Amino acid sequence: MRIFLTIVIVLVNFILQTTLLPYIAIGGVMPHTGLIIVVSLALLRGSTEGAWTGFVTGVLMDVFFGTSYGYYALIFLLLGFLSGRSQKNFYRENYLLPIIFCSLAVVVYETVIFITGLLSQGDIHVLYFLVRIMVPETVYTAIITIPIYRLLFGINEWLELKEKYKYRLF
Amino acid sequence: MFAFLERHKKIILTSVIIILAALALFTSGKKANATWLESALGFVITPIQDVTTGVGNWVDNTLTNRREQSEIVAENEALREQVASLQSDINRLQKYETENARLSSLLRIAQKYPQYDSFGTTIIAKNPGSWYDVFTIDKGTSDGVKSNMVLCSAEGLVGKVLESGATYAKGQSILDSRSSVPAMSLRTEDLGVVKGDYTLMNDGLCKMEYIDAEAEIAVGDEIVTSHLSDIYPPGLTIGKVKEIKNDTNGLTKYAIIEPAVDLKHLDTLLVIDNSDVQAQNEAATTDQTTNTTDTTDTTNTTNTSNQTNNQTINQTSNTTTNQTTNQTSDMAPEEETP
Predict the structure, then answer these.
(1) Mean pLDDT throughout A142-163?
(2) Which of B92, B112, B132 is the last residue of a domain?
(3) CB-CB neighbors (< 8 A) of A17 in chain B
(4) Residue B194: its pLDDT value, please?
(5) How far apart are CA A65 and CA B162, in angstroms?
(6) How far is B59 from B55, CA to CA, in rounded Å?
(7) B10 in a domain, yes or no?
(8) Is this complex's ipTM strictly greater than 0.90?
(9) CA–CA min distance A164, chain B (Å)
(10) Confidence class of residue B85 from pLDDT cuts 50, 70 and 90?
(11) Which structural domain range is residue B73 located in?
């Protein structure tokens, strides 16, 4: 059930992100909803599930938009895994941490893409990268994190409640 | 009295008939005012008639109203339905109209390159993020789309197919920073390479690099694909020069190109099947003479159809000879970053 639901969430997000998201772009900057979902799920469920979610999201990106296999899958997997490491250390009801983590994840993600672009093409536009891509995208993603995290939090609570009854854990 | 009447019934009847007949005969054609008798009779009867007629009319009206009301309601409903269906017809036809305009403009471009097979397709998804401009189109290998086919719209070049799945294909637009298209200025024939640049991508612009410092390229020049490519057919419109800047090395300059196609708002595309041409190019190395005539033909058609100003007509012959020599002497490889 949980696996099924996670895959559905990732797929629906991918479809929406690639078709409808450009409509809410501000100055060409879009929030990276896929990244938000990976990080949020990792924070809610731990590094293993975060890594899996990241892997699926990354594979989708690779298949439909990548030029090499495994590039996005690796980035997303690592981001999911690393943000899942801190799962035990905070209260899930708190919104501040997911926002910080998602923003950090966007910074890391964009920097990695920037560096690979730099290595393969030798374009150096650091200022443009910082001012026009990284900062606005981080801010926009941070804002969009709130509703998405709330939604995932609710779904997770519901699932955990169901699982509790199923396995008679109390 | 009654007995008398009864006895002389026949005579009375006959005489009354005769009198009436005579009266009718004599008074016929008389157009005068009513006599006092008639007036008196009228005075009594007409009001009653009035009332009766009024009542009759009222009853009749009420009945018809009742009937008409239901009729009108039904008619109204029918009209509403008709309006709705007509409205939907209008919407549908408007959709057809825009689609028709789009498709016929695509057909025009298809006719511009009659030597290539081509077919229409639609963009269904776009790469999220601000780095690369990759999109998915709704045709794949099952429709004959292969990698390195060229994507066009009515206005000009859009990009190429990166990779093709069974029912979809990945396209890369010319704004993508990994894309590079050998290009030249139509007016001055200065060569260069149009590359995407992510700092310009969000403004829908791209860059033409490696232009010779001596080149006479000017702002407003039309940039087309050059003949130095294995992928892109020559003469496809790319865009116009917006700005020219000198490189720091002083040997070359670069131009900011404004693509002819509005790449930010694009949905219908044309896939140009250039595999025949690619095969031809490969065959050209072995059989040069046939290829020479072949390319002369194709360049002629593409160039003449592409012309927008008179200036270029004079150049056609130049271009043709130029290209022929180029095609035969050096089969320059595609300048593509790995």
Answers:
(1) 89
(2) B112
(3) 128
(4) 92
(5) 9
(6) 6
(7) no
(8) no
(9) 37
(10) very high
(11) 64-112
CATH number, domain at A64?
1.10.1760
Cβ neighbors of B174 (< 8 A, separation 6 or more) are: B157, B158, B159, B181, B194, B196, B206, B238, B259, B263
**Do B124 and B108 share a structural domain?**
no
Q: How many domains does chain B have?
A: 2
- The reported pLDDT for the residue numbered A118 is 83
For tokens 């959709």, what's the residue?
Answer: B95
Residues A150, A124: Cα–Cα separation, whole Å: 38
User: Is B84 domain-assigned?
Assistant: yes
Partners of B207 in beta bridges: B195, B256
What is the per-residue pLDDT across B3-52, written as a single tens digit (0 to 9) for each? 777 777 788 888 888 888 887 777 666 666 667 777 777 787 777 778 87
Residues of A in contact with B123 (CB under 8 A): none
Partner residue opposite A125 with nearest CB, options B126, B132, B199: B199
- Classify residue A21: in a domain, yes or no: no
Question: Does B87 share its domain with B155?
Answer: no
pLDDT, tens digit, 9 for 90 and up, residues A97-136: 889 989 999 999 988 888 888 887 776 778 888 888 888 8
Residues B86 and B168 in one domain: no
On the question of pLDDT at B327 being above 90, the answer is: no
Cβ contact, residue pair A132, B136, below 8 Å: no
Within 8 A of A133 by CB-CB distance, chain B residues are 130-131, 198
Within a domain: B39: no
Give me the number of domains chain A comprises: 1
Q: The domain spanning residue B234 has which CATH number?
A: 2.40.10.340
Strand partners, B117: B273
pLDDT digits (tens, 9 = 90+) for B251-295: 888 899 999 888 877 888 888 887 766 666 666 655 544 444 444
Residue B20 lies in a domain: no
Closest by CA to B224, choosing from B111, B290, B288, B316, is: B316
pLDDT, residue B28, reads 67
- A25 half-sphere exposure, CB direction, 13 A CA radius: 20
Q: Model confidence at B227, in pLDDT bands (50, 70, 90)?
A: confident
**What distance in Å separates residue A138's CA from the closest CA in chain B?**
12
Residue-range definition of the domain harbouring residue A64: 31-167
